[in-house]
Amino acid sequence: MLKIKLNQSLQTMQQHSTRAIFFINGFGAATWAPLVPFLRERLAITEDTLGMLLLCIGIGSLIAMPIAGTVAAKFGCRKVLTLAGIIFSLLLLMICNISNLTSAVIILLLFGTVMGCLDVVMNIQAVMVEKSAGRRMMSGMHAMWSVGGFVGAGLFGIWVGMLKLTPFTSTIIAAVIMLSLLFGFANYFLPTGGESSGSIIAIPRGIVVFFGIITCIAYLVEGAIMDWSGVFLTTAKGFDISLAGVGFTMFSAAMFTMRLIGDRLVQIIGQKTVVIIGSVITFVGFMLLIFAENQTLMYAGFFLIGIGSANVVPVFFSLIGKQKVMPVNMAVPAVSTLGYAGVLLGPAVIGFLAHQTSLFVAFGLLAGLVALQLIIANYIFKRI
User: Which one of 75, 246, 308, 349 is most buried, by most CB atoms within 10 A?
Assistant: First the structure.
């Protein structure tokens, strides 16, 4: 009986540690975001140069993600997450002191590499912890990333805006918080990271390819709403510039709320129903954005997209643990890499298409991709 209780206690702490690393990652991302304008000002660079610098983060992530599963299998989630978390925190401090373009390129490449590694390995741990517990947790894990983002952005705003602290001092405080949480939970990260597959780079195969396509579409939609919702409202719909951020706010609030209740929702109505109905709701949301003229209906469109798309990625990360084609520690980075490609390429594709045609056509493409997502999801559920 005592041994059973000890095992249950260990499992509980492993679950909390997984939530903690999601929170730390989101908190760190929120700390990085307000440093961007300070970096631009310090280096005295133009927007196009800044854009190339930010691309370094994406390149670093895409380099790290396909091999992160192999690293996790060799060293275990505990060592990888702890080391990556430490480097992540220290790099934020280094970013505050970048003085030239050469160091900026090197540091941001490394920053992207660490972020990509963290994203993959924390999801590997989440899949393994959820599988061990035998119950749904993935939506709640991903919700903790959003919680970290909200808390991090709010605190940084208070430190810099209200308390008038310097960005470097504010980042020191943020790093201390991140490292304190990291060291508090590090012993409960999983000592293993999945089985070795003999392959170094995670290349999706079999049904995992369809997992990757689903994730790519979901991330593409999220990235497009983040980058283009304000432009769509002000340019295509004629909203005042002061209302540009309302659409993304509605989307984010809906997604965050649905992820908090997502695990319970899956238990009640099933993961297939959550994904299928969610995809339909997302499609309806895009139709409202494209065709509605009423302001309230357009805001409702963003809200519906957030509701519908919130739990698609968490559900399919959970399903990775059930497929037998690839080991978890290889399937997760393979899917993550395809998903991240959607984040990087999606907004650029939307911009190109909008320039050649219109934003209405570009958002119509997103609606079409959501319909494709529905078809692929239905196929996967028949195979799993």
Answer: 308
- Stretch(es) of the chain classified as CATH 1.20.1250.20: 2-188, 207-383
Q: What is the DSSP string of 16-35?
A: HHHHHHHHHHHHHHHHHTTH
Between CA 373 and CA 256 the distance in angstroms is 21
Closest CA to 195 of 124, 91, 294, 116: 124
What per-residue confidence (pLDDT) applies to 40?
Answer: 84
CA–CA separation, 380 and 377 (whole Å): 5
pLDDT at site 196: 64
Q: Which CATH architecture has domain 207-383?
A: Up-down Bundle (1.20)
Q: What is the mean pLDDT of the chain?
A: 88
* Statement: residue 237 has pLDDT above 90: no
Q: Which CATH architecture has domain 2-188?
A: Up-down Bundle (1.20)
8 Å CB contact between 18 and 133 = no
Nearest to 23 by CA among 138, 161, 148: 148
Nearest-angstrom CA–CA distance, 321 and 130: 9
CB 212 within 8 A of CB 347: no
Contact 181, 297 (CB under 8 A): no
Give tens-digit pLDDT for 69-97. 889 989 999 999 999 999 999 999 999 99
> What pLDDT, on a 0 to 100 scale, did the predictor assign at position 5?
64
Round the CA-based radius of gyration of the chain to a whole number and report it: 21
